[in-house]
């Protein structure tokens, strides 16, 4: 009754998650009644009964009832799991195109399999989109016996699947595939020059597992198909120069920690260093030319003498340069005084090397990406270094992001920073976002444990509603109030102490951390406290299933980096519930501890959901501090007057409200970033659709032959007479496809550069504000208007001189070579920032918590700002002069490092 009242109340407020489950519950009762009639059937008879329901127009209500009764019986026989009523309700909701919210451990996998089979029986092809290879393979094999008994074909695709294996797998009625793999296959299929090379089939039904993670979190990370061009190594000079720069003096980081820029002093320092190196290079070149001239005039003996002299000159030049750089670095390290700074400024006031000159654009770009890599990207937080390679970390899942990389220049900068071999770079041939990929499907549905929180986003971006399915057994988990501390050190001290107390009782503990770095630091503290534990993070994610499955055993302490999408239930007593399950229940069940709040409440709920599975007891507790990145990045300290106790714990309403406010701002910023990403990609998607329509006609029809016969009639007729029409048509098709693909690749490169600097357009309008997205669209439309016509002109020109023989077109000799190699990866979209990077600043001003806007009256003598963590002290109150700021540069450097 309470659930029905809550559901009606949400509908009244028109809030997400308000889908009425009444019709589904009524049908579920009818399914239960029909179940008795199918139980006496043999396996063969059950399969035949399902076969009789097959149609091409989808299952009607009566047919759905009969099918679900058969599917429930098939699951019971095949894998020993009879679907609960909640699972049947979930399957029905998915068959109606809903995103279903079901708590962890409530059987989403089986509910999804039943829904997928229902679509297949109705004549549809289903792609079950998983978050990774492991889950796609596991679920396809786990549910395989159920599909077999229902007479439905099932398959799975993984990262190591060959093209032929992929082609065969996609022919199955239900195919389990990681969302990235289907995206990459779609991109590759868009560039084939022969229909037989395609592997995918027409997009029909997408059933998304971990729907919130895939549709929301992954929607900001485009999938990319690249073609080999070159290796883009970063000059070692640039790396060494950037490492000498100091925070707060030579460069500044924006308040959000998303972008970094050189100061005037930093620019002078870089120009001086690059100028010295340029002068050194010029001296070396002059010396080399002189040596060559002497060699020609006086012979080898004199050349040897000259070479010796050149070496001495070169050494002297290098010594002088090193002395200059060392002297500059020494002055910088000492902080200097205003007089010294003035002298330094005079020395570099007119540098010989202008970093912003047109001819030095490449150097400027290298400096920027090297600075970004050095300052903003953190090892063991943003990436790992293992096996001689830089591997990015997926912040949403705490795993290594396979095949994910930054844009080529930044990727090379990080590799240079870590002194590992530079990976191949290439040009982007095509890209697609998860949102564009999913919207290709005629029907979208899915399941997850946390959908209501992002219900508005799901409706806005995908036009799907959320159906919340109540648990099979009431949730008896106890969620304790968050514990807030003043500093990170005080939080960690209390955290480890609390873990020790709980561990002494033998209760199983799962600890959720935010990063690899944090999990390893916590592991060190637990070792020091002599608390036995296991660690699961991006460095050993291959062992995750085994580690997580045993987290419910009494006495176990498991430290995990992110729990979203782990896909493994935590059963009390271990995987088979045979290791002291009753003792675990007596101790209160699994105890989940969070080391800090996430940027989204949804991620907190995912971690909490690991405890209290299917009516089991459980508990959760989150620790946080005012110095956590969530607070320092997404909130403000104005008006805050905390009063911690002896342990540093804060319980006052305003401090707690500040923590909640920071999480709301972070949620809003991420939602707006998703919205902005979609806005910038929407027009590109429309242009891509136009191009693909033309490309499809070229690929499957005789459009290329028709066009080129008109544009180069004499050449066309001549070739037909010489080598036959079929060969000429094939050559025309390949030429046309080559130029369409070439033009599209160049267009994508232009759009990438355009978006990188489009926010500057808003500064050019004076009092008239120019919206960056509008300016982007104008330029993008103008660039695309003539793209297809220009492609045909290029094709006609190439056709006139192409090497075409009876053996076909020689693409290399004709000037339209295909990429020698292609590869796929995911890319962190616009790491240098766009208009979206200013969203947070606007949100900070727009969303002000009551606790900040209405500070309590506290006497000045009762509060010392030094009590605040240094990350939260109000910098605006300082009236110090520039000289004073300069003197404290060393301290500022340390503060920036801590903040970063």
Automatic annotation (TrEMBL):
<dbReference type="Pfam" id="PF07517">
    <property type="entry name" value="SecA_DEAD"/>
</dbReference>
<feature type="compositionally biased region" description="Low complexity">
    <location>
        <begin position="275"/>
        <end position="291"/>
    </location>
</feature>
<feature type="binding site">
    <location>
        <position position="569"/>
    </location>
    <ligand>
        <name>ATP</name>
    </ligand>
</feature>
<keyword id="KW-0472">Membrane</keyword>
<protein>
    <recommendedName>
        <fullName>Protein translocase subunit SecA</fullName>
        <ecNumber>7.4.2.8</ecNumber>
    </recommendedName>
</protein>
<dbReference type="InterPro" id="IPR014001">
    <property type="entry name" value="Helicase_ATP-bd"/>
</dbReference>
<comment type="subunit">
    <text>Monomer and homodimer. Part of the essential Sec protein translocation apparatus which comprises SecA, SecYEG and auxiliary proteins SecDF. Other proteins may also be involved.</text>
</comment>
<feature type="compositionally biased region" description="Acidic residues">
    <location>
        <begin position="292"/>
        <end position="331"/>
    </location>
</feature>
<dbReference type="GO" id="GO:0005829">
    <property type="term" value="C:cytosol"/>
</dbReference>
<dbReference type="InterPro" id="IPR036670">
    <property type="entry name" value="SecA_X-link_sf"/>
</dbReference>
<dbReference type="InterPro" id="IPR014018">
    <property type="entry name" value="SecA_motor_DEAD"/>
</dbReference>
<keyword id="KW-1003">Cell membrane</keyword>
<feature type="domain" description="Helicase C-terminal">
    <location>
        <begin position="480"/>
        <end position="656"/>
    </location>
</feature>
<dbReference type="Pfam" id="PF07516">
    <property type="entry name" value="SecA_SW"/>
</dbReference>
<dbReference type="InterPro" id="IPR020937">
    <property type="entry name" value="SecA_CS"/>
</dbReference>
<dbReference type="Pfam" id="PF01043">
    <property type="entry name" value="SecA_PP_bind"/>
</dbReference>
<keyword id="KW-0067">ATP-binding</keyword>
<keyword id="KW-0813">Transport</keyword>
<feature type="domain" description="Helicase ATP-binding">
    <location>
        <begin position="89"/>
        <end position="248"/>
    </location>
</feature>
<dbReference type="InterPro" id="IPR001650">
    <property type="entry name" value="Helicase_C-like"/>
</dbReference>
<feature type="compositionally biased region" description="Acidic residues">
    <location>
        <begin position="853"/>
        <end position="893"/>
    </location>
</feature>
<dbReference type="InterPro" id="IPR000185">
    <property type="entry name" value="SecA"/>
</dbReference>
<feature type="region of interest" description="Disordered">
    <location>
        <begin position="275"/>
        <end position="343"/>
    </location>
</feature>
<keyword id="KW-0653">Protein transport</keyword>
<dbReference type="GO" id="GO:0006605">
    <property type="term" value="P:protein targeting"/>
</dbReference>
<dbReference type="GO" id="GO:0065002">
    <property type="term" value="P:intracellular protein transmembrane transport"/>
</dbReference>
<dbReference type="InterPro" id="IPR011115">
    <property type="entry name" value="SecA_DEAD"/>
</dbReference>
<feature type="binding site">
    <location>
        <position position="87"/>
    </location>
    <ligand>
        <name>ATP</name>
    </ligand>
</feature>
<dbReference type="GO" id="GO:0031522">
    <property type="term" value="C:cell envelope Sec protein transport complex"/>
</dbReference>
<dbReference type="InterPro" id="IPR011130">
    <property type="entry name" value="SecA_preprotein_X-link_dom"/>
</dbReference>
<dbReference type="Pfam" id="PF21090">
    <property type="entry name" value="P-loop_SecA"/>
</dbReference>
<keyword id="KW-0811">Translocation</keyword>
<dbReference type="InterPro" id="IPR044722">
    <property type="entry name" value="SecA_SF2_C"/>
</dbReference>
<keyword id="KW-1278">Translocase</keyword>
<dbReference type="InterPro" id="IPR027417">
    <property type="entry name" value="P-loop_NTPase"/>
</dbReference>
<dbReference type="GO" id="GO:0017038">
    <property type="term" value="P:protein import"/>
</dbReference>
<dbReference type="GO" id="GO:0008564">
    <property type="term" value="F:protein-exporting ATPase activity"/>
</dbReference>
<dbReference type="GO" id="GO:0005524">
    <property type="term" value="F:ATP binding"/>
</dbReference>
<feature type="region of interest" description="Disordered">
    <location>
        <begin position="850"/>
        <end position="900"/>
    </location>
</feature>
<comment type="function">
    <text>Part of the Sec protein translocase complex. Interacts with the SecYEG preprotein conducting channel. Has a central role in coupling the hydrolysis of ATP to the transfer of proteins into and across the cell membrane, serving as an ATP-driven molecular motor driving the stepwise translocation of polypeptide chains across the membrane.</text>
</comment>
<keyword id="KW-0963">Cytoplasm</keyword>
<dbReference type="InterPro" id="IPR011116">
    <property type="entry name" value="SecA_Wing/Scaffold"/>
</dbReference>
């Amino acid at each position: 009754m309470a659930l029905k009242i809550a559901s009606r109340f949400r509908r009244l407020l028109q809030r997400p998650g308000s889908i009425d489950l009444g019709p589904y519950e009524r049908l579920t009762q009818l399914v239960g009644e029909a179940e008795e009639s199918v139980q006496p059937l043999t396996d063969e008879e059950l399969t035949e009964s399902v076969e009789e329901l097959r149609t091409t127009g989808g299952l009607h209500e009566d047919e759905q009832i009969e099918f679900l009764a058969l599917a429930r019986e098939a699951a019971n026989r095949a894998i020993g799991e009879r679907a609960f009523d909640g699972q049947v309700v979930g399957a029905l909701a998915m068959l109606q195109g809903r995103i279903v919210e079901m708590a962890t451990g409530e059987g989403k996998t089986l509910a999804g399999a039943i829904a997928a089979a229902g679509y297949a029986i109705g004549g549809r092809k289903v792609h079950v989109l998983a978050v990774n290879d492991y889950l796609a393979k596991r679920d396809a094999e786990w549910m395989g016996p159920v599909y077999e008994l229902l007479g439905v074909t099932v398959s799975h695709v993984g990262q190591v699947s060959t093209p032929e294996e992929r082609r065969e797998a996609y022919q199955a009625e239900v195919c389990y595939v990681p969302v990235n793999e289907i995206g990459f296959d779609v991109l590759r299929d868009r560039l084939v020059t022969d229909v037989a090379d395609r592997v995918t089939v027409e997009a029909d039904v997408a059933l998304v597992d971990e729907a919130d993670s895939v549709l929301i979190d992954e929607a900001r990370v485009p999938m990319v198909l690249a073609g080999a061009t070159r290796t883009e190594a970063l000059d070692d000079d640039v790396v060494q120069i950037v490492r000498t720069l100091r925070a707060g003096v030579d460069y500044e980081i924006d308040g959000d920690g998303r972008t970094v820029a050189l100061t005037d002093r930093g620019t002078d320092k870089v120009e001086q260093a690059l100028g010295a190196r340029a002068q050194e290079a010029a001296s070396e070149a002059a010396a080399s030319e002189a040596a060559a001239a002497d060699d020609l005039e006086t012979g080898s003996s004199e050349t040897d003498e000259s070479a010796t002299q050149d070496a001495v000159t070169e050494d002297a030049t290098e010594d002088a340069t090193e002395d200059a750089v060392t002297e500059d670095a020494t002055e910088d390290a000492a902080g200097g005084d205003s007089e010294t700074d003035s002298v330094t400024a005079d020395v570099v006031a007119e540098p010989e090397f202008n970093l912003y000159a047109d001819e030095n654009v490449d150097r400027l770009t290298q400096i920027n990406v090297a600075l970004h890599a050095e300052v903003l990207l953190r090892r063991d937080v943003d990436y790992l270094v293992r096996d001689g390679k830089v591997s990015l970390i997926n912040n949403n899942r705490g795993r290594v992001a396979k095949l994910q990389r930054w844009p080529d220049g930044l990727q090379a900068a990080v590799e240079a920073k870590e002194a590992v071999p530079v990976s191949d770079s290439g040009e982007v041939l095509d890209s697609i976002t998860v949102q564009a990929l999913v919207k290709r499907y005629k029907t979208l549905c899915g399941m997850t444990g946390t959908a209501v929180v992002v219900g508005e986003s799901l409706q806005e971006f995908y036009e799907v509603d959320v159906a919340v399915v109540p648990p099979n057994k009431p949730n008896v988990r106890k969620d304790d109030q968050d514990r807030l501390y003043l500093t990170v050190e005080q939080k960690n001290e209390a955290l480890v102490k609390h873990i020790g107390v709980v561990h002494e009782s033998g209760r199983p503990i799962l600890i959720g951390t935010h990063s690899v770095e944090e999990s390893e630091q916590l592991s060190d503290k637990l070792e020091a406290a002599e608390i036995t534990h296991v660690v699961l993070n991006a460095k050993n994610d291959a062992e995750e299933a085994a580690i997580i499955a045993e987290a419910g055993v009494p006495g176990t302490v498991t430290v995990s980096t992110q729990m979203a999408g782990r896909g493994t239930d935590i059963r009390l007593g271990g995987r088979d519930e045979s290791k002291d399950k009753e003792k675990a229940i007596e101790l209160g069940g699994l105890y989940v501890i969070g080391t800090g709040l996430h940027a989204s409440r949804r991620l907190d709920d995912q971690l909490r959901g690991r405890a209290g599975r299917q009516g089991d007891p459980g508990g959760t507790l989150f620790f946080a501090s005012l110095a956590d990145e969530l607070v320092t990045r997404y909130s403000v300290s104005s008006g805050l007057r905390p009063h911690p106790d002896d342990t540093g714990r804060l319980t006052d309403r305003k401090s707690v409200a500040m923590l909640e406010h920071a999480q709301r701002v972070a949620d809003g910023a991420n939602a707006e970033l998703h919205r902005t990403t979609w806005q910038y990609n929407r027009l590109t998607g429309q242009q891509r659709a136009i191009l693909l329509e033309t490309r499809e006609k070229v690929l499957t029809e005789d459009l290329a032959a028709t066009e080129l016969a008109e544009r180069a009639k004499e050449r066309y007729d001549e070739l037909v007479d010489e080598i036959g029409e079929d060969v000429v048509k094939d050559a025309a098709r390949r030429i046309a496809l080559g130029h369409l693909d070439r033009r599209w690749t160049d267009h994508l490169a232009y759009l990438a550069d355009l978006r990188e600097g489009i926010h500057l357009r808003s500064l050019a309008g004076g009092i008239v504000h120019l919206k960056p997205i509008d300016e982007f669209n104008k330029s993008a439309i103008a660039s695309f208007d003539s793209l297809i016509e220009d492609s045909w002109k290029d094709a006609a020109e190439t056709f006139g001189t192409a090497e075409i023989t009876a053996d076909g077109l020689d693409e290399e000799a004709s000037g339209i070579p295909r990429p020698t190699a292609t590869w796929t990866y995911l890319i962190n979209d616009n790491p240098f920032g766009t208009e979206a990077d200013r969203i947070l600043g606007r949100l900070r001003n727009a969303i002000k918590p009551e606790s900040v806007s209405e500070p309590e009256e506290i006497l000045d003598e009762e509060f010392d700002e030094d009590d605040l963590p240094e990350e939260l002290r109000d910098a605006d109150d300082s009236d110090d002069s520039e000289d004073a700021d300069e003197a404290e540069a060393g301290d500022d450097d340390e503060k920036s490092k801590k903040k970063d």
